[in-house]
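[retry 2/3] L,D-transpeptidase: previous attempt timed out, resubmitting with same input.
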Amino acid sequence: MLLDSIAPLSDTTVGVAMPLSIVFTDPVKASARAEIERHIHLETSVPVRGAWHWFGDRRVDFRPRGFWPAHTHVSMVADFAHVPDGYGRYGTHSYTRDYTIGDDVRTRVDVVHHTTTVSRDGHVLRVMPSNAGSPEFPSWDGTMAVVSKAAEVRMTSCSVQIACDPNDPNYYDLTLPWDVRITNSGTFLHYSTGDPSPGSGNGSHGCIHLSYDNAKWFYELSKQGDPVTITGSPRGKAEGDNGYADYDVPWTQWLAGSGRGAFTTSAA
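[retry 2/3] L,D-transpeptidase: success.
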């Protein structure tokens, strides 16, 4: 039993909505999941009550019921040696992570009023004009944590299954700056050359458009795990495993997908 990935990385500082996310190389049987969860030991500088939740049979995430307390240090030891996965495979390794929850930076995108408001530790830092997805391609609603960011990203309509024919009016192939990704399916907050002065109309293919200066400021501020909450979009919420949209899953549903159930982390 091996792991494909663990997020976040050690020695990083992440946002208050960042789950501890473990992806196994091979499927894990439902009957083996509670035992696997019990072999993942969590210590936090501030005890938190949370639970693991399985997305399918290979990914398991831990989060508190609410957001993490800011400035919490998290230590994980996953002692999987000799632990079965239910399909005849056994763990051979232990894995560790040590990281910190940083400042409580939250972003709220109001689709109806074309504004994006950013706060830190409860204090508003900036209110920015923004545009969201068009009626044909509405943005996701709900809360999604920042997955990653890049100073420049090539965005193509074909990569997100919108249009692959260059003659299609929805076709695009652009390299754009100051990109903060919030879903694996291709949602970003970024600057768009086709929408340089947002704030009056929603016409994107699902991304949130900011002005160049605001997009650069937001890019520099953002870190993995910062929550971005979009309201007023008709599309509905992103699935919890579409990036780190874990807080789109109601707590009762979250617990239903846990082998062990809720527990309080050990004090570090």
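[retry 2/3] L,D-transpeptidase: Residues 3-103+247-267 form a domain with the Immunoglobulin-like fold (CATH 2.60.40.3710).
[retry 2/3] clearing retry counter.
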